[in-house]
Each structure stands twice: as C-alpha cells, then as structure tokens.
Amino acid sequence: MTTVLITGGSGFIGSHLVRHFLDQTEFSIVNVDKLTYAAVTLPGEISDPDGRYAFEQTDICDSQAFRQVLAKHRPTAIMHLAAETHVDRSLDAPAQFFRTNIEGTFNVIEEATNYWKALPAGRAESFRLLVVSTDEVFGDLGTSGQFDEDSAYRPNSPYAASKAAGDHLARAWHRSLGLPVIVSHCSNNYGQRQTPDKLIPKVITNALRGKAIPIYGDGSQVRDWVWVEDHAKGLAAALARGRAGQHYLFGGGAEVSNLELARTICDRLDHHDPNPGFGQRRQLIKMVEDRPGHDQRYAIDWQKAAHELNWRPKVSMQTGLDNTIRWFLDNRHWWEPRLLYHDMDQRLGLTRTGPNQVETSSK
Ligand SMILES: NC(=O)c1ccc[n+]([C@@H]2O[C@H](COP(=O)([O-])OP(=O)(O)OC[C@H]3O[C@@H](n4cnc5c(N)ncnc54)[C@H](O)[C@@H]3O)[C@@H](O)[C@H]2O)c1
User: Fold this and answer.
1) Contact 3, 27 (CB under 8 A)
2) pTM assigned to the model
3) 33 C-alpha to center of ligand 1: Å?
4) CA distances from 134 to 146, 186, 358 (A)
5) How far is the CA of 280 from the centre of ligand 1 (A)?
6) Please, are residues 260 and 104 in contact by the beta-carbon 8 Å criterion?
7) Are 90 and 165 in contact (CB under 8 A)?
C-alpha cells in the first residue's frame, strides 16, 4: 500500500494536494502540519469515508517529533510543502522563515535520509522525497525569457533566500548521500481557500467590501499564474514519474501584470455580483508604495515537465479566476473572520526598509 506523507498539508496548496490524492488514488495520506496562521483546512474538514487520512499536528523544526511520525506511519514517499510563504512577512520578520524553511527543511531532509537508509532494499529503491520549492529562487526576469531547470539561483527576498537554502540542502544530500530527492519549482498559484493576505484573494475580498485595492508600485510586475489543482497534479506526476536528483518547473502559461489582473478581477466581480452600491469596482484600485526589492517578472518554461512527467496546465486563467471569484462570493463565512487576525487586512513588508534601501537588479 502506498502511504504519502505530506508536510504542510493544511496549507493552501497542501490541502488541494491532499484532496487530489484522496479523490484520485487509493493512497493513504499522512498530513504533518503545525497549523500556523496559514493553515486553511482543519483536520476535521477533510472528507475521509474509507479511513485513508491521518493528521499529525507536528512542527517540522522538532526533529525528534518528525522522526516519531516517520516511524509510526512508515511512508513510501514524502512531499515537503510546509513553509512560511508570505514575501512581505519575510521582509518584516525573517527569523521564522529561517527556522521553518531552512532548519525545518534540514530536519525533513536529514530525517528522511536516515529513514530511507534503514528501509529494506525494495522499498528504499522506490522511496522519494519531493521538496516543493518556488520559481522565486531564480530572482526575476526582464521583459523576455523564461526560467528553466538550468536557471541560476538569484533570490531577492528573505522568503526566496530561505527557500533557495532548502533547495541547496536537497541537492547536496542527493549528490553526497544519494538521497532520492526531487525539487519542484512553481510560479504563483491561485484558487479556492487561499488566505486573504495573498494578491488574488486580497483583490477579491477588498473589491467585495468596497475597500481600496492596493497595487504595489506601478502595477507592471508580471506573474505567471497557475491553477492550484493543476499544480497539485504536477506534484503527483513528479512523485510518480520524476527522476531522483532532478528539478521540474511548473507554470500556467498565463502571464499578466498585477494591475491588469486587478482590473480583470474587478470587471468579473461586477459581472458576477453587479450593483454593489459603490459603482464600478475598478475605481477602488489604488497604487501604493512598492514592495522593497519587488521582482519584476516571472515566467516558466515547463517543457521538461511536459516531456518527462506528461504534465501540462489544463485550466485557463479565465476559467480559474471565475471559479475562484465564485468561491469567494459563496464563502464569506470562511474569509471574513480570517481578515481579523494576523494582520491579514494590513499593509505588510515596509517596517524595516528606508532610504538606504539598495535597488536590486533584474536578470
Ligand atoms: N502559493 C504559491 O503560489 C506557491 C508557489 C510556488 C511554490 N510554493 C511553495 O509551496 C509550498 C506550499 O505553499 P502554500 O502557498 O500552500 O503555503 P501556505 O502558507 O498556504 O501553507 C503552509 C502550511 O505549512 C504549515 N507550516 C508552516 N510552518 C510549519 C512548521 N514549522 N511545521 C509544520 N507545518 C508548518 C502551515 O500551518 C500551513 O498549513 C511552500 O513550500 C511554498 O514555498 C507556493
């Protein structure tokens, strides 16, 4: 029987990944999550009629606790998603990013190595650790070009730097100790149940409340958006067909500037929820001080994933956005209380930057 242990399975992407496996496979799933402010799915909210889901509230920074979870569940594979993920928060308070994304990832890699080395031969051969990273480790692009598996590491934010460190650990443990590890890099995800401090939910939830929609700088920064369920399928494909020691990139082929994206969301909301009482929602868009070190453009060449994993993004940005907007319209009870906690409704990332801030160069 296949048992996949997923760290961070209560987070935005992790909870879609857990649902993917429970719905589409017969695998047993063990979710190891500390339940930080970013957890969007609580243990009781997973439908598990045939008893294939187990939850362990565990901090990956606690190596002994993580070791005990491995010994208890004996997974056939590990997918490591647990992380601190909000770039602005990493500018204000990087220490927790260091702990979780570097020290925590070290624990996952080190404990996975000891666990894998003690497995019987057949099981050791098929064991995989998938480390889920981000395209942000490659820095940013100018107006042309795409990231691929050979792109140089040039992280520009504390978040990206901490993720890059985790990737380097994975590389070293593969090269020196033979750990069968795969690293994946995805561009920005969007979809249902994303916390309202991330760009798309922030635009939607502010637009629904008639509140100013803050867009950083001149709004020209371009992101390549991926429907979160497409990413989950890519991760499952990497686990099933990926080669140990390899990196795979996932992208949506849906490049759009932040300003254009905010305008589109406002227009789609006017369509789905007309006459809110405060006029057209585009008028709520307000340009605000830029994010320090803001990456200009991300774009992904996902041909390696297409050829080796038989993966490609399936959901168009138009369909995905409409689906996401409808979900936020129908689930106010989910996101409204969340706005009250953890500065979800506040501008973050400016507390420690000032006039001496150095311009970062793009590639
Ligand atoms: N969201 C994106 O657009 C995106 C894009 C590319 C890659 N990624 C990567 O994918 C992974 C998941 O991202 P996400 O957006 O779902 O994150 P998220 O912030 O929504 O969720 C993170 C989850 O990790 C858990 N967690 C945090 N610290 C932990 C710890 N010390 N021990 C155990 N659990 C802990 C949280 O409780 C939460 O459930 C991350 O590694 C992230 O770097 C995200």
Assistant:
1) yes
2) 0.96
3) 10
4) 14, 5, 24
5) 34
6) no
7) no
Residues with CB under 6 A from ligand 1: 7-8, 10-14, 33-36, 38-39, 59-61, 81-85, 100, 104, 132, 134, 163, 186, 188-189
E strand or H helix at 64, and its extent? helix 63-73
Nearest ligand 1 atom, CA 194: 20
Strand pairing report for 222-224 and 255-257? antiparallel
Residue spans of the domains in the chain: they are 3-192+225-255+299-315
CA 187 to ligand 1 centroid distance, Å: 14
The residues, any chain, with a CB within 8 Å of residue 323's CB and separated by 6 or more, are 191, 192, 315
Across the chain, mean pLDDT equals 95
Q: Is the per-residue pLDDT at 362 higher than 80?
A: no
Residue with tokens 């008028």: 283
32 with 213: CB under 8 angstroms?
Answer: no
Q: Which atom of ligand 1 is nearest to the CA of 39?
A: 39
Tens-digit pLDDT profile for residues 49-104: 899 999 999 999 999 999 999 999 999 999 999 999 999 999 999 999 999 999 99
Residues whose CB falls within 8 Å of the CB of residue 301, separated by 6 or more in sequence, listed in order: 146, 147, 148, 249, 251
Handedness of CA 179, 308, 79, 160 (dihedral sign): positive
Beta bridge partners of 77: 4, 128
Task: Enter the tokens of residue 145.
Answer: 């070009």
Catalytic residues: 135-136, 159
Q: Show the tokens assigned to 344.
A: 């979800």
Q: Hey, which CATH number is domain 3-192+225-255+299-315, 3.40.50.1820, 3.40.50.720, 3.40.50.2300, 3.40.109.10?
A: 3.40.50.720
- Angle formed at CA 161 by CA 156 and CA 166, multiple of 5 degrees: 150
Q: Going by C-beta distance under 8 Å and a sequence separation of 6 or more, which residues neighbour residue 156? A: 136, 139, 140, 293, 295, 360
Q: How far apart are CA 66 and CA 32, in angstroms?
A: 8
User: Which position has the token pair 């509140």?
Assistant: 211
Classify residue 147 as exposed, middle or buried by CB count within 10 Å of its CB (0-12, 13-18, 19+). Answer: buried
Helix (H, G, I), strand (E, B) or coil at 308: helix
